[in-house]
Amino acid sequence: MTDSQNPSPNQMHLAAFVTAGPGRPGGWRYPGSEPGWLSASYYQHIGRVLEQGKFDLMFFADILSVPDRLGGSMDSQLRYGALGSLRLDPTPVLSSIATVTEHLGLAATVSTSYLEPFPVARSFATVDHLSDGRAAWNVVTSFQDSEARNFGSDRHIDRDKRYDRADEFLEVACKLWDSWEDDALVMDPSVPLFADPDRVHPIDHKGEWFDVRGPLNVSRPPQGYPVIIQAGASPKGRDFAARWSDVIFCSHASLDSAREFYRDIKDRATRHGRRPEDVKILPMATPIVGPTTEAAREAERRLADLVPPLAGLSTLAYHLDIDLSTLPLDEPLPDVDVPGVQGHYKEVVEMTRREGLTLRELGKRYGGRTEGAFIGTAAEVADSMEQWFTEGACDGFTVGAVHTPGAFEDFVRQVVPELQRRGVFRRDYEGRTLRDNLGLDRPRAGTWRDRRYGGNVPR
Predict the structure, then answer these.
(1) In this structure, are residues 250 and 285 in contact, taking their beta carbons and an 8 Å threshold?
(2) If both were cysteines, with which of 92, 143, 233, 315 could 83 make a disulfide (CB 3.0 to 4.6 Å apart)?
(3) 12-292+371-456 CATH fold
(4) pTM
C-alpha cells in the first residue's frame, strides 16, 4: 500500500458486531427482525450491506456453551433467545461471506483457553488466503465453567493463567505463520519446484503450555498475520491487548471512561515498543436511528418492552461470572468481586450509579444493550460519533444492531452518508487487504518478538 492509499488519520474506522444467532433477547422479537440465523444467505446479505457502507470489517462474537450462570439453569438463555441460545461456528460463516464480498474484513472469535495453536493458525491462514487478505481473529480467553465442561474440565483456568496461556498461544501462532517465508511457495513446474524446502522451517516450540514442531502446512498469509482483535479491561487484559492487538473492542458507559481507556491503551502500546496509531480502539455503539428524535426514542422503548429482565440478567450473569439470581431484583447491583469480564462490570456499575437502576431495570437495559448517546436522527447519531472520535475517545466504532439485518441497513443508508458528508469516514476503500484499509503495516516475519518484548516490559 502506498502512502497515498493510507487512510486519513482524520477518518474513523467502522467494524460491525455480529452474532451467528439471535444474540439479543429483545432484538429477535423486534418488528422487522428476520430469523435467518441458520442460512448462509442471511450472513451474506449482511456482509453485502456492510461492504456497501464501506465498513472495515464485521466480526462474529462466539461462546462455547449455552450459559447456565443464572440460577444454574440454561432456561433463561434458551427460553428468551439470549446471548448463547444459538451460536453457529463463526469460521465457516466467514468463508461463505468471503465469496460475495471483495473488501470487507472478516473476523471470527476463537478462544485460546481450550483449543490448540496449530489448527487455529491454520484456519485463519486459510481464511486469509481464500479472502485475499481479509481475515481477522478476535482472541478471547474463555472464563466460564460451562465452557470448560465442554472440553473435559470441571473448572475454567484462572484469570492470570488464562492470559499466560493466551500469550504463549499467540506466540506459537505467529511462529507458525512465519514458518513459511514469503517466497517459499514457488510452484514452478519446469524445475520442478513446488515449495522451496530451504524456506519452510519447523518452529520447534517447547513452552509451558504448548509443544509444537511445525511448520504450518499452509503458506504465509497474504497479510503476514491476520489482523488480531482483542478486548481486555483488567490491568493484565489491557496489557495483553496493547501488546498483541491491532484492533481493540471495548464498551463504555460514558465519554469520560472511553477517553481514559483510550489514553491508557495508547500509553501501554508505546511501552511495548509499538506506535500508538498501530492499535485501533473501536468502542461499541448500538445506534437506533429514526426520522425524528422522538421516533428513535419510541423505538428504544419498544425494544426495551420486548426484553424480559431475566433475559438481560442471564447475559450479565454470564459476562460477570456471577449468579445474579441470589441478589434482590428491586435493589441496585451491589459491589461484588467479578471473576468475569471487568469491562462489562465497570460499564454496568457506572450506569447503575448514574441512573439509580435496580437490578431488574439493569436486566432490561443490559438485554437491550443500547447506548443513549447513539439514539436519534442520523445527524444526531453522527454528532455523537464525531464527538467521541474527535475528542480522543476512539479511532472509530464497533457498530452493533438491535435487530438484524434492518438496523445495519438503517445505519448504512442513513448514518454513513452523514459521516461521509462531514469528512470523517471514507467514501471508498483505500486498499485491498484489511490491513490496508485499517492503515496497518504488513508484519515482517518475527514481528511477534517485537510485540512480546518491545519496550522491555516485564512479563
Answers:
(1) no
(2) 315
(3) TIM Barrel (3.20.20)
(4) 0.91
